[in-house]
Amino acid sequence: MAALSLASSLFAQKIVFTPQWTPQAQFSGYYVAYEKGFYSDEGLDVEIRHLSSNSTETTTSEMMKGNADIVGVQLLSAMTARSDGDKIVNVLQLTQKSGLCCVSHKPISSPEELDSLKVGRWRAGFADFCDVLETHIGIKINWIPILNTVNLYVYNAVDATLAFSFSELIALELATGKIPDDHIIRFSNFGYEAPEDGLYVTEDYYNKNKELVDKFVRASKRGWDYTRDNRKEALDITWKYIREHNISTNREHQKRMLDEYLDLQVNPETGVADYAAVKPEVFVKMVEALRNTGHIVNNIEYEDLIK
Amino acid sequence: MKGSQHSFSTRLSRNILIVTSSIFISVLLAADIASHIVVANEATKAAENLRDATIVKIENILQKVETSVASSAWLIRENLDNEEYLYHITQKIVEENPNIIGSAIAFDSYYFEDKLFFSPYSFMDTNSGEVQSKQLGTLQYNYFFMDWFQIPYLMGEPCWGEPYFDDGGADCLMSTYSYPLKDAEGKVFAVITADISLEWISGILSSIKPYPSSRVRLISRNGSFINQLSDANTRGETIFSISADTSSKSRNVHRLAEAISRGETGKIIYLKDGEASFAVFAPLSNGWKASISCNYTEVLSRTFRIHIILFSLVIIGLLILFKSSYLIIHKLTDPLSHFTESALEVAKGNFNVDLPQIKEDDEIKKLRDSFDYMQKSLKKYIGDLQETTATKERIQSELNIANQIQMAMLPRDFPATDRVGLLAMVHPAKEVGGDLYDFFLDKDSLYFAVGDVSGKGVPASLLMAITRASFRFIAKMGLPMNEVVSKMNNALAESNANGMFVTLFVGKINLETGEFKYCNAGHNPIVTISPDGKAEYMKAKPNLAAGLFSDFPYEEESCTLQHGSRLVIYTDGVTEAEKADKTQFGEDRLIEWSENRCTLFSDSGEACEDLYSTVKQFTDGNEQNDDITIMTIILR
User: Are residues A214 and A301 in the same domain?
Assistant: First the structure.
């Protein structure tokens, strides 16, 4: 057995995977796949290589530089990158609906009410979304770029802030207490159908290592399926990574994050987490919106990006 | 008896112990609750004082920083055209305030022409111990997106930034005070900052320890625990992350978190992991909050120790009380045991037994006196009783003799010839009775009499004896039956001072011819049974009972009896025999017996016995209250 194991590791194919952010429950399925040996079962030697917390790089740029084979990217960013010439392809669409929401200090019922308000948004990324939003509903928002904390909202420096339901929204609630439901709008309830997280590789890598990519995707799905059925164990595994990287967070945050993130993976049409690819009509609408706001110049085809 | 005496003492002592214990325990419990309330209130007050003192201590230091920065504002405004002096100002801020380890004046983008970033910054170099200066803003360090710049910039108000643990160089807990500078139009054009080390906060907070496991927390505006930020394992926790426990062993934890978060001042009792605690909390002027939580187990542990001691003392006291009350009660009730022994002696008949002397004039002495009186009364009573009993025994003995004499007076040699059969019996209700019978044969004639003297007992028996003697004497004169009765009546009436009388049935049967002459003196009608078995009461004039009035004109009557006829002569003791329910045997039952039973017997004796047993059977054991006399005659 030892010899077999040695042989297996000798012949295992190396893959570097970089998720979008530092360790958190958003990536539990990958940690579980690694720790439970699902990648090894596929004959893969996977290294999960996180971005450093103060990195200014994106996962796409890391991959394009050759520092990662497979990365996690949000669909919107991937489309912009593809349009900008980064030949990347989507090999797995993980979330099936958008977790993007807006949290206000006052009751809010629609995005139109954000007109003229100071609204926090991430300094890096999502400028495209913000433009699409403003253009789509015809309002002008005073966007306040923020780094990665929720402090501007907590200190009342902004009227509202963008947040992901599985991340910032939970952080805000753990900082200030339960936020009333009528202070939150989820953009998915207002026609914003673009799902976020997926796995991406370069087109070149995909063409040369299709089988390898399939193995990684298969093992990753297995990891997420296991996570869904064994949340406490998955959380324990995730917590190990969080501690190793000295991330400042708490288990309650990670627990709620995992629950919410697994919920985002459920396909609203089928009611199960089926890892369905983004629908072509949604893709086309997104491309059109991005082109109208000038965020992509070059046209991108569904078949080019979605594999 | 000694054991039983002890048992009384023990029982009484035990009851006293139970009542006393109940009272003591109730008082102890009440005292326990009261002292818990007092101690808990005192602990709350102490914790509140500590909290307030801590807040004042922290705010004093923070205010010095705030004053230092604010007082530099006018100097900056005066020297906006002198970049070098702006560096100097930051340097002075650091040098003059030991709490400040770095200070910057961060200008808005392009406030100075061609300068995207301009931020003179001075800091205490821990290596050299000297204040160093540099320009802070770079593309890599874009302070426009830093909280310390962005928040006061957007708010237009000074603020204390979120404390953080700087593990990139300073290696200490830090916070930044930011003060916005506004132009004439109110637009923020620069932000003055002061970085301070918060290590002293840990010193202040760790010195506060009302109880070993008390938690003193300083909470930032985003819910972080400032004094835990230096610990990598706990720095991520927030007030709401630790209060997320919704198990049944936790209560009020989330309410506490919300109250603290809202900046309320107060106290909340909560349960976490089954442990009851209270927390006192209040906000600081900069939006931070201070909270002190104390575990009730610890708070009350001192009173618990006192209560254990108190409880032990009470237990010891109760045991002493039990023992001493037992001894006292035993001593007080000791004479009772002597009384018991004396009572036993008295019961044995020894009325001269000595009683214990009681000195105290109390209930025991009264009991002793009563006992003494009872002893003397008993002695007299028993003496009287003995005398009475002896008298009674003597009378009983005499009565027995009288009975024997009376019974001996009655003839026993009943005729049993081929012409007549006769048998009679008397059953007195008392030792001696007033009933009588007599008979004798004179040639062919059978003389007989049955009588019942009024009253019972000795007087009746004396009159019975006279009656019986006079009948035998007078009847033998060969006079008609009415004259026999008249003479007996006169003889009895002469010496009858007490008004006594006797009913009599006197008859003479010619055994040859069956002629039956008789005279009734107020007696029950006799039963005749014809040879064919028909029974009836014989018609006879009742006349008057003998002995009441002299010379009463009695009449003789006669009839002829057929051979085979039977006569049943009796006294009212037969027909008036009663059951317990007062039902009498009655004349009908006598007729019924005469027809159905009497004829069964050819012997008079058997017939008499059967009637007597029938009457006894009827009365079913009820006490006989009158003399019973039965005489049966069978003419053959």
Answer: yes
